[in-house]
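Memo to structure team: turn this sequence into C-alpha coordinates by end of day. - J.P.
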Amino acid sequence: MQQYHILIVEDEESLANTIALNLQLENYKVLLAKKGNDALTVFKNNSGLINLVLLDVMLPEINGYELCQLFKAIDPLVPVIFLTAKNQISDKIEGLKLGADDYITKPFDLEELLLRVSNVLKRTKKEASPTFSFNGCSINFETFDIKDITGATSTLSKREIGLLKLLTENANKVISRDEIIEKLWGVEENASSRTIDNYILNFRKYFEPNPKEPVHFHSIRGVGYKFTA
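Reply from structure team:
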Protein backbone atom coordinates (compact mmCIF):
# COMPACT_ATOMS: atom_id res chain seq x y z
CA MET A 1 0.00 0.00 0.00
CA GLN A 2 1.34 3.41 -0.95
CA GLN A 3 2.31 5.72 1.89
CA TYR A 4 1.56 9.32 0.97
CA HIS A 5 4.07 12.04 1.84
CA ILE A 6 2.61 15.36 3.02
CA LEU A 7 4.57 18.58 3.51
CA ILE A 8 3.15 20.89 6.20
CA VAL A 9 4.27 24.52 5.91
CA GLU A 10 3.03 26.27 9.05
CA ASP A 11 4.88 28.70 11.34
CA GLU A 12 2.59 28.15 14.35
CA GLU A 13 4.48 25.26 15.93
CA SER A 14 1.73 23.85 18.14
CA LEU A 15 -0.75 23.76 15.24
CA ALA A 16 1.83 22.22 12.89
CA ASN A 17 2.62 19.49 15.44
CA THR A 18 -1.07 18.76 16.03
CA ILE A 19 -1.73 18.42 12.30
CA ALA A 20 1.39 16.28 11.87
CA LEU A 21 0.39 13.91 14.68
CA ASN A 22 -3.11 13.42 13.28
CA LEU A 23 -1.77 12.77 9.79
CA GLN A 24 0.78 10.29 11.12
CA LEU A 25 -2.00 8.44 12.94
CA GLU A 26 -3.64 8.06 9.53
CA ASN A 27 -0.38 6.51 8.22
CA TYR A 28 0.78 9.56 6.26
CA LYS A 29 4.49 10.37 6.14
CA VAL A 30 4.92 13.99 7.28
CA LEU A 31 7.54 16.62 6.45
CA LEU A 32 7.53 19.95 8.34
CA ALA A 33 8.73 23.46 7.57
CA LYS A 34 8.07 26.71 9.47
CA LYS A 35 9.62 29.30 7.15
CA GLY A 36 9.40 29.98 3.44
CA ASN A 37 13.03 29.27 2.56
CA ASP A 38 13.06 26.06 4.65
CA ALA A 39 9.87 24.91 2.90
CA LEU A 40 11.43 25.50 -0.51
CA THR A 41 14.54 23.51 0.45
CA VAL A 42 12.49 20.59 1.81
CA PHE A 43 10.33 20.59 -1.32
CA LYS A 44 13.34 20.61 -3.67
CA ASN A 45 15.08 17.83 -1.73
CA ASN A 46 11.95 15.66 -1.86
CA SER A 47 10.74 16.51 -5.35
CA GLY A 48 8.84 13.59 -6.80
CA LEU A 49 8.15 12.16 -3.34
CA ILE A 50 5.71 14.74 -1.93
CA ASN A 51 2.05 13.92 -2.69
CA LEU A 52 0.41 16.96 -1.08
CA VAL A 53 1.30 20.32 0.51
CA LEU A 54 -0.64 21.89 3.39
CA LEU A 55 0.36 25.52 3.08
CA ASP A 56 -0.17 28.47 5.40
CA VAL A 57 -0.46 31.85 3.66
CA MET A 58 1.14 34.19 6.20
CA LEU A 59 4.69 32.90 6.59
CA PRO A 60 8.12 34.37 7.39
CA GLU A 61 10.48 35.00 4.42
CA ILE A 62 8.17 33.87 1.57
CA ASN A 63 4.38 33.99 1.78
CA GLY A 64 2.20 31.02 0.91
CA TYR A 65 0.99 32.42 -2.41
CA GLU A 66 4.56 32.87 -3.65
CA LEU A 67 5.55 29.44 -2.32
CA CYS A 68 2.65 27.84 -4.16
CA GLN A 69 3.94 29.32 -7.43
CA LEU A 70 7.48 28.12 -6.68
CA PHE A 71 6.27 24.60 -5.81
CA LYS A 72 4.19 24.43 -8.99
CA ALA A 73 7.19 25.55 -11.05
CA ILE A 74 9.12 22.55 -9.70
CA ASP A 75 6.24 20.05 -9.81
CA PRO A 76 3.17 21.40 -11.67
CA LEU A 77 1.00 18.45 -10.58
CA VAL A 78 1.62 18.62 -6.82
CA PRO A 79 -1.69 19.26 -4.98
CA VAL A 80 -1.82 22.22 -2.54
CA ILE A 81 -4.32 22.94 0.23
CA PHE A 82 -4.10 26.41 1.75
CA LEU A 83 -4.57 26.68 5.52
CA THR A 84 -5.14 30.28 6.51
CA ALA A 85 -6.81 32.79 8.79
CA LYS A 86 -7.46 34.96 5.71
CA ASN A 87 -11.12 34.24 5.02
CA GLN A 88 -12.07 36.90 2.51
CA ILE A 89 -13.52 35.63 -0.78
CA SER A 90 -10.83 37.57 -2.64
CA ASP A 91 -8.13 35.67 -0.71
CA LYS A 92 -9.73 32.33 -1.56
CA ILE A 93 -9.98 33.27 -5.24
CA GLU A 94 -6.32 34.32 -5.22
CA GLY A 95 -5.31 30.93 -3.85
CA LEU A 96 -7.44 28.99 -6.32
CA LYS A 97 -6.10 31.05 -9.23
CA LEU A 98 -2.61 29.91 -8.27
CA GLY A 99 -3.69 26.30 -8.70
CA ALA A 100 -4.60 25.37 -5.12
CA ASP A 101 -6.83 22.31 -4.84
CA ASP A 102 -8.61 23.43 -1.66
CA TYR A 103 -8.71 26.32 0.79
CA ILE A 104 -9.41 25.81 4.52
CA THR A 105 -9.83 28.74 6.90
CA LYS A 106 -8.68 28.69 10.52
CA PRO A 107 -9.88 27.57 12.96
CA PHE A 108 -10.87 24.27 11.40
CA ASP A 109 -12.01 20.87 12.58
CA LEU A 110 -9.28 18.20 12.35
CA GLU A 111 -11.70 15.57 11.09
CA GLU A 112 -12.73 17.89 8.28
CA LEU A 113 -9.07 18.53 7.43
CA LEU A 114 -8.32 14.79 7.29
CA LEU A 115 -11.34 14.22 5.06
CA ARG A 116 -10.31 17.01 2.69
CA VAL A 117 -6.75 15.68 2.57
CA SER A 118 -8.06 12.22 1.70
CA ASN A 119 -10.38 13.62 -0.97
CA VAL A 120 -7.67 15.69 -2.64
CA LEU A 121 -5.25 12.74 -2.67
CA LYS A 122 -7.89 10.49 -4.26
CA ARG A 123 -8.78 13.14 -6.82
CA THR A 124 -5.21 13.90 -7.81
CA LYS A 125 -3.75 10.41 -7.62
CA LYS A 126 -1.60 9.83 -10.66
CA GLU A 127 -0.06 6.79 -12.21
CA ALA A 128 3.37 5.97 -10.84
CA SER A 129 6.00 7.90 -12.74
CA PRO A 130 8.79 5.87 -14.34
CA THR A 131 11.22 8.41 -12.86
CA PHE A 132 11.98 8.77 -9.17
CA SER A 133 13.84 11.90 -8.01
CA PHE A 134 15.56 12.73 -4.74
CA ASN A 135 18.22 15.19 -3.62
CA GLY A 136 19.10 16.22 -7.18
CA CYS A 137 19.41 12.60 -8.35
CA SER A 138 16.99 10.59 -10.48
CA ILE A 139 16.26 6.98 -11.44
CA ASN A 140 14.31 6.01 -14.56
CA PHE A 141 12.83 2.56 -13.99
CA GLU A 142 11.89 2.11 -17.66
CA THR A 143 15.16 3.05 -19.36
CA PHE A 144 17.43 1.97 -16.43
CA ASP A 145 19.17 5.37 -16.63
CA ILE A 146 20.20 7.28 -13.52
CA LYS A 147 21.49 10.77 -12.82
CA ASP A 148 23.96 10.68 -9.96
CA ILE A 149 24.92 13.23 -7.29
CA THR A 150 27.40 14.91 -9.67
CA GLY A 151 24.82 15.23 -12.46
CA ALA A 152 26.44 12.50 -14.56
CA THR A 153 24.24 9.86 -16.21
CA SER A 154 24.73 6.09 -16.27
CA THR A 155 22.79 2.99 -17.26
CA LEU A 156 22.42 0.27 -14.63
CA SER A 157 21.59 -3.42 -14.89
CA LYS A 158 18.03 -4.72 -14.65
CA ARG A 159 18.75 -6.21 -11.22
CA GLU A 160 20.26 -2.99 -9.87
CA ILE A 161 17.20 -1.06 -11.04
CA GLY A 162 14.98 -3.74 -9.50
CA LEU A 163 16.69 -3.29 -6.14
CA LEU A 164 16.44 0.51 -6.38
CA LYS A 165 12.72 0.22 -7.17
CA LEU A 166 12.12 -2.13 -4.24
CA LEU A 167 13.93 0.18 -1.81
CA THR A 168 12.46 3.48 -3.02
CA GLU A 169 8.90 2.14 -3.15
CA ASN A 170 9.31 1.16 0.50
CA ALA A 171 11.07 4.34 1.64
CA ASN A 172 11.93 4.41 5.37
CA LYS A 173 11.12 0.70 5.76
CA VAL A 174 13.72 -2.00 6.31
CA ILE A 175 13.67 -4.64 3.56
CA SER A 176 15.17 -7.97 4.64
CA ARG A 177 17.89 -9.74 2.65
CA ASP A 178 15.59 -12.74 2.26
CA GLU A 179 12.83 -10.61 0.73
CA ILE A 180 15.27 -8.97 -1.69
CA ILE A 181 16.66 -12.34 -2.83
CA GLU A 182 13.17 -13.80 -3.14
CA LYS A 183 11.93 -10.92 -5.34
CA LEU A 184 15.00 -10.29 -7.49
CA TRP A 185 16.67 -13.69 -7.94
CA GLY A 186 15.33 -16.96 -9.28
CA VAL A 187 15.16 -20.09 -7.14
CA GLU A 188 17.97 -21.71 -9.11
CA GLU A 189 20.27 -18.70 -8.72
CA ASN A 190 22.82 -18.64 -5.94
CA ALA A 191 22.38 -15.10 -4.60
CA SER A 192 24.22 -13.96 -1.48
CA SER A 193 24.19 -11.09 0.98
CA ARG A 194 27.62 -10.07 -0.34
CA THR A 195 26.12 -9.43 -3.79
CA ILE A 196 23.47 -7.13 -2.30
CA ASP A 197 26.12 -5.39 -0.17
CA ASN A 198 28.09 -4.63 -3.33
CA TYR A 199 25.01 -3.13 -5.00
CA ILE A 200 24.40 -0.92 -1.96
CA LEU A 201 28.04 0.24 -2.00
CA ASN A 202 27.64 1.18 -5.67
CA PHE A 203 24.40 3.06 -4.93
CA ARG A 204 26.22 5.09 -2.29
CA LYS A 205 28.90 6.03 -4.82
CA TYR A 206 26.21 7.18 -7.25
CA PHE A 207 23.80 8.96 -4.93
CA GLU A 208 25.45 9.88 -1.62
CA PRO A 209 27.28 13.20 -1.07
CA ASN A 210 29.66 11.22 1.16
CA PRO A 211 29.51 7.45 0.52
CA LYS A 212 31.24 6.75 3.84
CA GLU A 213 28.45 8.54 5.73
CA PRO A 214 25.29 7.49 3.85
CA VAL A 215 22.06 9.42 4.36
CA HIS A 216 19.94 7.56 1.76
CA PHE A 217 21.10 3.93 1.53
CA HIS A 218 21.42 2.25 4.91
CA SER A 219 22.56 -1.25 5.88
CA ILE A 220 20.79 -2.50 9.02
CA ARG A 221 23.14 -5.07 10.54
CA GLY A 222 21.68 -8.55 10.65
CA VAL A 223 18.37 -7.44 9.14
CA GLY A 224 18.51 -5.82 5.72
CA TYR A 225 18.53 -2.46 3.97
CA LYS A 226 16.60 0.80 4.04
CA PHE A 227 16.22 3.78 1.72
CA THR A 228 15.61 7.23 3.23
CA ALA A 229 14.74 10.15 0.96
